[in-house]
Design goal:
It comes from Quercus lobata (Valley oak). This is Basic blue protein. By secondary structure, the protein is an alpha+beta fold. It has a single domain, classed as Cupredoxins -  blue copper proteins (Immunoglobulin-like, Sandwich), CATH 2.60.40. The protein contains two helices and seven strands, in the order H-E-E-E-H-E-E-E-E. The chain is globular and about 65 Å long.
């Protein structure tokens, strides 16, 4: 009877692990960048005081005639260079965070320099 008990314990453990992993995805949070003001100038400080996790979703709301969102690396963020990043331009973009640094700028000329950029570190 002992071998059956161990097999059942393994099955239960695998099921519990699967449920925990699934719950981790369910607990992902959604954040609207810039809150009610949306993705606009001087939003650079918006992430301050917030805790982000990999899998959380950032929603960027803006007028696509005047702005966009470009996912860039740290260098692109620091230098306001959008040339190598992925560009989003729907006006209501939903972007899932990856673990570590996530960097976003507006690719319209001069906008990043006016602090239309955010850096988010996801745990």
């Amino acid at each position: 009877m002992a071998p059956q008990g161990r097999g059942s314990a393994i099955v239960v453990s695998i099921l519990l692990l699967g449920m925990l992993l699934h719950c981790g995805n369910v607990l992902a949070a959604t954040y609207t960048v810039g809150d009610a003001g949306g993705w606009t100038f001087n939003v650079v400080g918006w992430p301050n005081g917030k805790t982000f996790r990999a899998g959380d979703v950032l929603v960027f709301n803006y007028n696509p005639a005047f702005h966009n969102v470009v996912g860039v690396g740290k260098n692109g963020y620091d230098t306001c260079t959008a040339s190598s990043g992925q560009t989003f331009q729907s006006g209501s973009d939903q972007i899932k965070l990856v673990q570590g640094g996530n960097y976003f700028i507006c690719g319209f000329p001069g906008h990043c320099a006016k602090n239309m950029k955010i850096a988010v570190n996801a745990l």
